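not sure who needs this but someone in the group chat was asking about FAD assembly factor SdhE from Alloalcanivorax profundimaris so here u go. i didnt clean anything up, its just raw.
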Amino acid sequence: MTSSPSSETADLKRRYQWQCRRGASEVEVVLYAYLDRFFEDDTPERRAAFGRLLECHDVDMLDWFTGHGEPEDPELREFVAGMLRRVAETD
């Protein structure tokens, strides 16, 4: 028996919640904002990009999130830029 896509997404979100715990609270704020507000309704490709982002070092993410650098990988660079725009939007 296979899980439904929504069940798989919910399981993935629970795993990612633990991975969002970081040493830098500034990084946590951005990661949790995306996870809580956009993750479940996002495309599978963006959810996969978020998983790749969680594999990155805190210091790199802090630079990216504060505009002091950007990922070398073009797909990750595009995801981070889009994520930051979306997270910065107010409801």
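also The two ends are 39 Å apart (CA to CA). if thats useful
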